[in-house]
Amino acid sequence: MTRTAVAALMAALAMGACAELPGMSAAPTPAATAPVQYVRDIHSYARPEIARVTHVDLDLTADFERKVLSGTAALDVTAEPGAGEIILDVRDLDIHAVRTADGPLEYTLGAHDPILGQPLTIALPFEAGRIFVDYSTRPGAEALQWLTPAQTAGGEKPYLFSQGQAILTRTWIPTQDSPGIRQTYSARIVAPAGLKAVMAAEMLTPEGEATPNGRAWRFRMTQPIPPYLIALGVGDLAFAPLGQRTGVYTEPSMLAGSAAEFTQVEAMVEAAEALYGPYRWGRYDLLVLPPSFPFGGMENPRLTFATPTIIAGDQSLVALVAHELAHSWSGNLVTNATWSDFWLNEGFTVYFENRIMEAVYGRERALMEQALSWRDLHAEMAELPPADTRLHLDLAGRNPDDGMTAVAYDKGALFLRTIEQTVGRERFDAWLRGYFDRNAFRPMTTAMFLEDIRAHLVRGDEALERALMLDAWIYQPGLPSNAVEPQSDAFAVVDAEVARFVAGTPAAQLRTDGWVTQQWQHFLGALPDGQDAARMADLDGAFGLSSSGNSEVLFAWLMNVVQNRYEPGVPALERFLTSMGRRKFTQPLYVALMAEGDWGPPIARRIYAQARPGYHPITTGSADPVVLGE
Ligand code: BES
Ligand code: ZN
Q1: Is residue 135 flagged as an active site residue?
Q2: Is residue 584 lining ligand 1, measured as CB closer than 6 Å?
Q3: CA 628 – CA 240 distance, rounded (Å)
Q4: How many helices (H) does the chain have, and how many strands (E)?
Q5: How confident is the model at residue 32 (pLDDT cuts 50, 70, 90)?
Q6: pTM greater than 0.90 (yes/no)
Q7: How far apart are alpha carbons 373 and 557 in whole angstroms?
Q8: Catalytic residue among 279, 351, 409, 590
Q9: Which positions ≥6 away from 534 have C-beta within 8 Å?
């Protein structure tokens, strides 16, 4: 079908020619069973209201020599009568053939857009059936990182992992890559002998199956998920159980440390269920990746992917696990319909994460984390154009990654906390639990959220409507007047010591006994710029900051090192930037270095030249423009 044919069909549908269309039925239907309303997603070529993928079945072989995944994606598709074609999203894929069980299908690959990739338009011989796409990925596929043995903890075997969010799944799977188009999936992955494959799905072959060229591993995900959550890891992986339905996969040398860090994961799942209803995905496992993993964590269903930089030895950074677990409700169950609605995933999740932390680690810890979130939000809002400080974002012509700021996370969470404090926790929790139930396994837009909260929480109470300032939070820049700063007594203690240090008290005389990680983060974040080398040396000497084993503390210290041009701190900076590739740490450090006149840029370029080959494409994609100017 040509573009004009699609337009004609769309027009006919809009005039009501087909009453069966999702979301167009005239009869009122209870929300939980209502057909999905497809909204236009500007980051996908798919037209799901015309033809959509309902299931993806992968049969792929991982070739570590060539850094290529190749094989077949079998797609179950459903089309409206007369559709005649289906549009998929692909980027940097080599398509070898498109066919049905009976023979080849005609297809065209449209023009390549640097952000979106290409539409793959396939002629459909039926309204419902299975099509097969034979394809291979390219070594530069942005969703995939192929690690050499040297880049792993064990140093002997290669490793592969995927990262789909936001729009990278299309670089390794030809499907409709929009968060509003849920698909079930199954997979058979062939990997060289000696490696284990895991996926964000139910594992059907715990030991794998022998094949002529390695071992095959089979998986299935029977609940429909957005394609950004399809995920794969292949490596020398061992497993340790944490609880009844929880466990951790990682390289053998990392297993004991990971299991010790995550002893509270089962308790976190229980706390989350007690708050907002049953965990609906069966198992909850973690995969602790090699240090080049570009994010802190990724909420792949049943199998959270996590950076090893959260293994601090004292569980001080496990809020990240609470966060990814919370996404099992906010994000994986109720999913942002488009990336402009990203705050619905992340803001809800940061709020929920903090409730889990409060339940498992106590109120003081939760309050400190809220206070850090407030500080991050203000720091970042000061740098952003005002339009990007709104919760609902205009991403026209932009990469959805532009929306990955503290606004979605911390302003979003602050918004929900403001509502909680206004209506009281009991009422708020009842609404939120209902929101997850009513909207489970469905896409959510910002407008639908507003409808839901007005229908089920505000219920026409005009005084409450005014007090909440819902529209201002979502559509106005900055923070509305009802935002309340969290107060942490534990941080008040720290502020007093910052003041003493600034007034000249030697570091060794500061009262820091018993400080926890979050207090150190706050201390290092609150130090004013302009510390001379002697004061920096005093701090480092007293507290051993340059050799901290806690990645957040080390990062906060290194930001001071850069901003104060503290030369003796540079070796620690270099060690840190060459030993991990988590973008949350790499990006601010490189940006800060490049901002330090003629001192920082040469250091940035020297370290980057060394570190870059080990970084993930997502990390280099952000850092290249900053350090290399390209
Ligand atoms: N889903 C995000 C990661 C993400 C967002 C990847 C957008 C790609 C595009 C994940 O849940 C997340 O927010 N991770 C945070 C950690 C969290 C504790 C704030 C991270 O990686 O830093
Ligand atoms: Zn998140």
Answers
A1: no
A2: yes
A3: 42
A4: 20, 23
A5: low
A6: yes
A7: 18
A8: 409
A9: none
